[in-house]
Amino acid sequence: MLATFKEAIDKLKKDPYIGTQKTGDLRGIFGYDVKYIGSNYELAYRIYEDDGKLVVVILAGTRENFYEELKKLIK
After folding, report:
1. Which pTM was predicted?
2. Distance between CA atoms of residues 54 and 34, nearest Å
3. Count of CB atoms within 10 A of residue 32's CB?
4. CB atoms within 10 A of CB 29
5. pLDDT truncated to tens, each residue of the chain (75 aa)?
6. Whole-number Å distance between alpha carbons of 15 and 25
7. Which of 5, 10, 2, 3 lies closest to 55 in space, CA to CA?
8. Burial class (CB in 10 A: 0-12, 13-18, 19+), 46
9. What is the SS3 string spanning 17-72?
């Protein structure tokens, strides 16, 4: 499982815009889907650009209640 998230983060390092940009109260957040043994997981992150790109992962986990937890974290 850890290797799967590492692979996803490596992909985001190469192109942080491959994720889906969220809208509404999650504007400014990107989401990237990760599949592992038939289950769906999500990475939520922000992209800060200052002298190059910096990607900050905010939350990683299963899709169940993911966005509710994310909204709590970013308030």
Report:
1. 0.84
2. 20
3. 20
4. 21
5. 678 888 999 999 899 999 999 999 999 999 999 988 888 999 999 998 877 778 888 998 888 889 999 999 987
6. 24
7. 10
8. middle
9. HHCEECCHHHCCCEEEEEEECCEEEEEEEEEEECCCEEEEEEEEEECCCHHHHHHH
For 57, residues 6+ apart whose C-beta sits below 8 A from its C-beta are: 9, 43, 44, 45
Neighbour tally for 66: CB within 10 Å: 18
Gap between the Cα atoms of 63 and 6, Å rounded: 18
Cα separation of 15 and 11, whole Å? Answer: 6
> Residue 8: helix, strand or coil by DSSP?
helix
